[in-house]
């Protein structure tokens, strides 16, 4: 097995970057969606509107959601979106364990929701969020789709 080129791993650096920026922006709602890949510069994307609600596209097994529950944030709602039921099942188990261990005084996130969806399908439940994140979503999509996806929410 080859030695990792980055320490900490890039996946951990991405999550830490997102958590830091969410806290700086005082966001209250987050939606997280499926992990995919295209242009590495676009791995973490923010769609900023009112700074009160967020959506993250590409949640996979919920690593960003888990990290957000471990840190104090202004988030009031976490939403994860992924096309992989296996990933969503892992995310649901992990989030349930974390939320059941924390009391409501330890976390200000009263709601977490996971949607089994593709980001290419219209879903009105994903509109109205102030910030959206995509960890690696654009790496597996075409340039055309990435541009339409990115600017379709602005």
TrEMBL record:
One protein family per Pfam: Methyltransf_12
UniProt record similarity statement: Belongs to the methyltransferase superfamily. HEN1 family.
Keyword Magnesium: yes
A GO cellular-component term linked to this record: cytoplasm
Protein name: Small RNA 2'-O-methyltransferase
InterPro entries the UniProt entry points to: Hen1, Methyltransf_12, SAM-dependent_MTases_sf
UniProt EC number: 2.1.1.386
A GO molecular function held by the record: RNA binding
Keywords, ordered alphabetically: Magnesium, Metal-binding, Methyltransferase, RNA-binding, RNA-mediated gene silencing, S-adenosyl-L-methionine, Transferase
Organism: Zea mays (Maize)
Catalyzed reaction equations: small RNA 3'-end nucleotide + S-adenosyl-L-methionine = small RNA 3'-end 2'-O-methylnucleotide + S-adenosyl-L-homocysteine + H(+)
One of the protein's GO biological processes: siRNA processing
Enzyme class: transferase
